[in-house]
């Protein structure tokens, strides 16, 4: 996967991409990645960096997935209520067209929140940083509730100038939390929610919590099977 994506990036630069760089006389950009479990302060760190860049006189823009409508449709919002206006998009490659070519050319820094929801994250970062000279700051989950790679966030790490892994505080014991535990029985990978659905946990409580969830699911499935069997018997009688 990585070699294929690298070849895509390389081909872009050797074809029309090289002409674009030459004609604009621009330098390469940067990619910075912020990852961690839920409630680790990823969005807060992203907003802090974006505001700092803006205060330094650089033109900034923020993007989030249109799937995330938890707090606001047109703003990136931290769990403690800090807001920043953004573009809510279904994909990243449409950003330049929607933002406008002239405005995009003047743009210096692009922030991407909840980056795990963008399937075209790698291609966008490659184009924006390598060809367009933008600084791209990516914030997202590195793993899902089963501790598997989530979306394309980890694919971007080979492109990154810096990678920052944040931790939360375990909701059960107060130790450092590296993982996200889902409280519900829903098994979909993409399930957007807050503290009502997820909590940050340490390794011990993640393992223990998963065991409890699996045991509960088995009991519920067993009860459902018995109920269905009882209904079938009753209908026959």
Automatic annotation (TrEMBL):
Signal peptide: none
PROSITE patterns reported in the protein's UniProt record: TK_CELLULAR_TYPE (PS00603)
Gene3D superfamilies hit by this protein: 3.30.60.20, P-loop containing nucleotide triphosphate hydrolases (3.40.50.300)
Annotated pathway: Pyrimidine metabolism; Purine metabolism
Record keywords: ATP-binding, DNA synthesis, Kinase, Metal-binding, Nucleotide-binding, Transferase, Zinc
ATP-binding found in the keyword field: yes
Domain of life: Eukaryota
Matches recorded under InterPro entries: P-loop_NTPase, Thymidine_kinase, Thymidine_kinase_CS
Reactions it catalyzes: thymidine + ATP = dTMP + ADP + H(+)
Molecular-function GO term, any one: identical protein binding
Family: Belongs to the thymidine kinase family.
Protein name in UniProt: Thymidine kinase
Organism annotation: Tripterygium wilfordii
